[in-house]
Specification:
There is one protein chain. The protein has about 260 residues and is an alpha/beta fold. It is built from 10 helices and 8 strands. An 8-stranded parallel β-sheet has the order 1-2-3-4-5-6-7-8.
């Protein structure tokens, strides 16, 4: 069994045939998918998809790229959605200092606001961090032990990894681990098995052998294979514990192979 802990079924490249995408994933052995929201409107669409498609759950949140555009009505909508049963986490939040589409102080304030919502609703955080290791680590430390989270598509350094693990957070790896020039093998090996997740981040970052094409949840097995190779573990072992970890992190019932 496999679990895609982070993808974007509401993206224009997937939304039109989301049902077929999910069907292909199920045939490939994927028993669960979490579709991640990028803003309030996207969160509404994510919840609608999750309610319509078996084995799919959603998040509600505002991506750092669009943090500056979020008004109070958007934040109120996120809070409303956070109370719905198919919403299993808040985010994608975090910091992106590579593109700086929103001012950095605005990104930080939005991240902290997600932390406050996570504490209020008892939901975990899905966190994006790009070229912002120090500030991301500082907010994780300030969040405290009562806030759970995952550093998704992890591409940070050893210090951020250590901060996340010390805080009890999960670390998620994507198709990056299959790329020929991937330089994070030591960090993949440093994550305890019970703290590791896998994701596609579809439609982005398609793993080898699909690199350059539209990514989709069915390809998460290639991520598992990449992680297993780097850790010196069996593919089915990694598939089993990452699926179990995802269901525990998102507080979902265990799935049967027939799901």
């Amino acid at each position: 069994m496999l679990f895609d802990s982070h993808c974007h079924l509401t993206d224009d490249r997937l939304r039109a045939d989301a049902s077929s995408v999910v069907d292909r994933a199920r045939v490939a052995g994927v028993t669960g998918i979490v579709t991640i929201a990028s803003d309030a409107e996207d969160a509404v669409r994510a919840v609608e998809l999750a309610e319509a498609l078996p084995g799919v759950w959603a998040t509600a949140g505002i991506h750092p790229h669009v943090a500056a555009a979020a008004d109070e009505a958007a934040w109120e909508r996120i809070a409303e959605l956070a109370g719905q049963g198919k919403v299993v986490a808040l985010g994608e939040t975090g910091l992106d200092y590579h593109y700086d589409h929103s001012p950095r102080d605005v990104q930080r304030r939005a991240f902290v606001r997600h932390v406050e919502l996570a504490r209020e609703f008892g939901l975990p955080l899905v966190v994006h961090s790009r070229e912002a290791d120090e500030d991301t680590a500082a907010i994780i430390r300030e969040a405290g032990a009562d806030v759970r989270g995952v550093l998704h598509c992890f591409a940070g350094g050893a210090a951020l990894l250590e901060t996340g693990l010390e805080a009890g957070w999960m670390i998620s790896f994507s198709g990056l681990v299959t790329f020929r020039n991937y330089d994070g093998a030591e960090l993949v090996r440093a994550v305890p098995a019970n703290r590791l997740l896998v994701e596609t981040d579809a439609p982005y970052l398609a793993p080898v052998p699909h690199r350059g094409r539209r990514n989709e949840p069915a390809f998460v097995r290639h991520v598992v294979e990449g992680v297993a190779a780097l850790r010196g573990e069996e593919v089915e072992e990694v598939a089993a514990y990452t699926t179990s970890n995802a269901r525990a992190f998102y507080r979902l019932e265990p799935a049967s192979p027939a799901t």
